[in-house]
Automatic annotation (TrEMBL):
<keyword id="KW-0808">Transferase</keyword>
<dbReference type="GO" id="GO:0016301">
    <property type="term" value="F:kinase activity"/>
</dbReference>
<keyword id="KW-0418">Kinase</keyword>
<dbReference type="Pfam" id="PF00294">
    <property type="entry name" value="PfkB"/>
</dbReference>
<dbReference type="InterPro" id="IPR011611">
    <property type="entry name" value="PfkB_dom"/>
</dbReference>
<dbReference type="InterPro" id="IPR002173">
    <property type="entry name" value="Carboh/pur_kinase_PfkB_CS"/>
</dbReference>
<protein>
    <submittedName>
        <fullName>Sugar kinase YdjH</fullName>
        <ecNumber>2.7.1.-</ecNumber>
    </submittedName>
</protein>
<dbReference type="InterPro" id="IPR029056">
    <property type="entry name" value="Ribokinase-like"/>
</dbReference>
<feature type="domain" description="Carbohydrate kinase PfkB">
    <location>
        <begin position="73"/>
        <end position="308"/>
    </location>
</feature>
<feature type="region of interest" description="Disordered">
    <location>
        <begin position="1"/>
        <end position="21"/>
    </location>
</feature>
Amino acid sequence: MHVRGGATVPSAEGAPKGERGMAVRADASDVLVLGGAGVDTIVHVPELPLPYADSYMIDSGIRTRAGQTGDFVALGLAALGLRTHHLDLLGDDPEGDLVRALHHEHGIGLTALPQPAGTKRAVNLVGPDGRRLSLYDTSRAHPDDRFPQATVRALAAASRHVHVTITQPCAHALPVLRETGVPLSTDLHDWDGENPYHEPFAYAADVVFLSAAALADPERTMRRIAERGRADTVVATAGADGAHLLTGGELTRVPVVDPPAPVVDSNGAGDAFAAAFLYGRLSGEPPERCARYGAIAGAHACTVPASRADAIGRADLLRRAAGPNP
């Protein structure tokens, strides 16, 4: 087991144990991010959907970089000055090395448990307008994958908040997380409101993010999440239409924020929104202010090329939030 931002020490009686008989000593953190570590290969295509052809010439190059949903949330949180720790399964492979290097470069604590199937990976096809189509390699996960309960409990107990991605094996960690009493958030991404896989996440979290892209009636889905689960806040992002915020039973619209530069890629925009929203929440800001932070960070993320892993900093976020037109 590889640990940064904490320590790995020989197990003692009663100590929380990770893999291979080692104990995890968890340093205090603001946010623990669970799951969602991996590598993307970025391919810029002339249009989406991509018409069939025998071959395409990719003049912009094909690039592989670390950064899936959990990595991007952790990166966004760290860029905003929050002490961040990330827990996931990683392979002993080149992709895992890229993920480890990303966390080391940005000072993000990482507990990487062994994944014999290899590090999660995906291929992102990115169109000229910044839209993407993601192809996920599901062979690098197994239904029996689990995080050691003691490791989850120790890291969560040392954190002010836990953000849970919907990747394998995070669903199995939800009961342990709820036992700790630490507030939870999750991102359901493009949930259609029907797929049962997402429901444990939707109903266990205190803050739920999702995209409205696949929802016929976003308000109905948002209210169902709040009524059936624990969420006091539900946010549905809607791209160029801004976002919907449900808190205290009241639904409001979050205005869209104009990007500060041309849009080149939408990948990571939702993760940036979630990170900035959580920064506001942990700073004691009201939900409306948190959502404004999220909209600003999401707009910034759309201006970052897919080949880079970058996030808005706290000074820039607060400066733009203070202006009339961020």
